[in-house]
């Protein structure tokens, strides 16, 4: 994670290291995708997905880094150890492939939406990536079981045998007139 400041606030680019370095062979040390920086409950968090180096893609799960208080610049004084590896998102299914997590608050409740394999399907053999929602007790602890909210049912969401719904993001109008999720349908490697 890198940062630079603008007149509008922090924007992330490639100038200054901002967070944490993982050591080789940790369960979350390879295949790191989709990091997201969130200020929640007075602290900075980075939600990201990663895989175990000896297992590969089938082991992708969601992890959290905890940073300094959200009143501080999340990229200041990285060398002081302000960022901590908080491990797996607690309470998530351990048998589910999971990537692209994002947090949002709705009606004073914290939620996480992520792309994952169908519940109960072998993470090494699944064909479709669905969106799931989980109510959170905290940024590191699930408060409910995942519920599928979107599945690739249209032709344009499929590439051969594989259907893709992934990359969910919460969008909200500044005046509160519109709130909702957007996501990617179909893989970035697809021809459609």
What does this structure look like?
- It is a single chain.
- The chain is mainly β and 192 residues long.
- It has a single domain, classed as Tachylectin-2, Chain A, CATH 2.115.10.
- It has no helices and 14 strands.
- The two termini are 31 Å apart.
Strand-helix topology:
Elements: E1 2-6, E2 9-17, E3 30-40, E4 43-51, E5 61-69, E6 84-88, E7 98-106, E8 109-116, E9 128-138, E10 141-142, E11 147-150, E12 158-159, E13 162-172, E14 179-185
Parallel strand pairs: 9-13
Antiparallel strand pairs: 1-2, 3-4, 4-5, 5-6, 7-8, 8-9, 9-10, 9-11, 12-13, 13-14
Concise structural overview:
The chain is mainly beta. The protein contains no helices and 14 strands.
Overall tally of structural domains:
1
What is the top-level CATH class? Mainly Beta
What general outline do the C-alpha atoms trace?
A: globular
The low-confidence runs, each spanning 5 or more residues with pLDDT under 50, are 1-14
Second CATH tier, the architecture:
5 Propeller
Number of helices: 0
Q: Percent helix among the residues? A: under 10%
CATH homology group: Glycosyl hydrolase domain, family 43
Radius of gyration: 17 Å
* Element-by-element helix/strand order: EEEEEEEEEEEEEE
Mean pLDDT rating: 84
Biggest sheet layout = 8 strands, mixed
Relevant terms:
single chain; 192 residues; 8-stranded mixed β-sheet; globular; disordered N terminus
